[in-house]
Amino acid sequence: MDADVNGIDIDDDDDDDADIFSIANDRKSEDDDTLTGEDNVLSAVHTKRTAVNKDEPAEEFLLTREAVVRFVQDSIADALDKQKETQTNMEEQMFFHLMKETLFLCLQ
Hints:
The protein is mainly alpha-helical.
C-alpha cells in the first residue's frame, strides 16, 4: 500500500522513504523538547522576576545597586592595573635608554 504524507510518497516496499520520514520526525521531536525546556526556564525566570517585583522591590534595588558598585570597582581596579603596567613599561624603557647611553659613553 502506498501512502502520501506531506507530498512524500511512502511505499511499503521502499524502506528508505520510511526511514527518512522517521528521522525527520525524530529531529522535530528533539527540537520541540529543547524548546519546551527553554520555555520552562524562561517561564521560571519571569515568575521569579514578577515575584521579586511584587514582594521585594527594595531587595531587587539593592541587588542592582550592588552589581553596579561591583562593576565600577572592577573597572577602577582594571584601570589602575593598566596604569601600573604603563608606568612599569615607561620605567623599563627609561632604564634601557640609560643603559644604552651609558654603554655608548663607555665605548667612546
